[in-house]
């Protein structure tokens, strides 16, 4: 493992983790309003992600918290925390706020609609995105059908998203599923169970290691 791995890990881990999304036919939160995932890199447990769903004034609020830590022996080489709050209304993305800390470096983002576009304000500046854009936060597979942006940096993603029906959940999970494959700048597969709930994720990091999310 080299020093180039942590930066690559945090970039892809964000795309794979920072946030939250659901299935082939429609976006479905779990019945109990919460998702919990264990995060693994090459089979080693490196963190967790919690996603909480709530409703207020007709809007769907989705709150996600990610915490990951990678060690080289006893020495921590990556400490990553990400917190996101999304708002959706009648299937349309409305607003996002995120806070991220990578080895102590802080980043903030807000995204909201303004003048028939999406205004994304980040620590580095302001990005104007298409009005139909949504964050790649995974719990809502319907978002895969339109333009996607990175929920940490605000950058528009150059990706192709393809839905695969009649799939199976990856081991050690089991059961029928819909799989969405994301290729291009990100290499990610997301699985959604028969109820349309986000259940698993696999992604290749720049160092060719395997990042996995397993619902707990």
Briefly characterize the structure.
The chain is mainly beta and 216 residues long. It has one helix and 15 strands, in the order αβββββββββββββββ. The strands form two sheets. A 13-stranded antiparallel β-sheet has the order 8-7-6-5-4-3-2-1-15-14-13-12-11, covered by helices on one side. A two-stranded parallel sheet has the order 9-10.
Detailed description of the structure:
This protein has 216 residues and is mainly β. The chain has one domain (4-215). The protein is built from 1 helix and 15 strands. Strands 8-7-6-5-4-3-2-1-15-14-13-12-11 form a 13-stranded antiparallel sheet, with helices on one face. Strands 9-10 form a two-stranded parallel sheet. Strand 4 and strand 5 form a beta hairpin.
End-to-end separation in angstroms reads 29 Å
Give start-end ranges of low-pLDDT stretches: 1-26
Mean pLDDT: 86
The H/E string reads HEEEEEEEEEEEEEEE
**Tally of helical runs:** 1
Topology of this structure?
Layout: H1 4-17, E1 34-41, E2 44-56, E3 59-72, E4 75-89, E5 92-102, E6 105-114, E7 117-122, E8 125-130, E9 134-135, E10 148-149, E11 159-168, E12 176-184, E13 188-192, E14 198-204, E15 210-215
Parallel strand pairs: 9-10
Antiparallel strand pairs: 1-2, 1-15, 2-3, 3-4, 4-5, 5-6, 6-7, 7-8, 11-12, 12-13, 13-14, 14-15
Task: Describe this protein with a few key phrases.
mainly beta, 13-stranded antiparallel beta sheet, two-stranded parallel sheet, 57% strand
């Amino acid at each position: 493992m080299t020093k180039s791995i942590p930066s690559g890990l945090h970039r892809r881990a964000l795309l794979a983790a920072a946030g939250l999304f659901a299935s082939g036919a429609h976006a479905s939160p779990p019945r109990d309003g919460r998702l919990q995932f264990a995060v693994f890199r090459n089979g080693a447990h490196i963190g967790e992600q919690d996603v909480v769903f709530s409703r207020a004034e007709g809007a769907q609020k989705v709150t996600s918290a990610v915490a990951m830590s990678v060690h080289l022996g006893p020495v921590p080489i990556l400490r990553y925390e990400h917190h996101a709050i999304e708002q959706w209304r009648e299937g349309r993305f409305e607003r996002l706020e995120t806070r991220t800390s990578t080895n102590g470096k802080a980043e903030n983002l807000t995204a909201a609609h303004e003048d028939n576009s999406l205004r994304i304000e980040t620590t580095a500046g302001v990005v104007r995105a298409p009005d139909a854009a949504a964050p790649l936060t995974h719990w809502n597979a319907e978002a895969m059908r339109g333009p996607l942006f990175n929920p940490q940096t605000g950058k528009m993603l150059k990706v192709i998203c393809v839905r695969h029906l009649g799939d199976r959940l990856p081991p050690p999970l089991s059961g029928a599923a819909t799989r969405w494959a994301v290729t291009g700048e990100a290499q990610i597969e997301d699985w959604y169970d028969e109820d349309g709930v986000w259940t698993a994720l696999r992604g290749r990091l720049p160092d060719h290691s395997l990042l996995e999310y397993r619902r707990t």
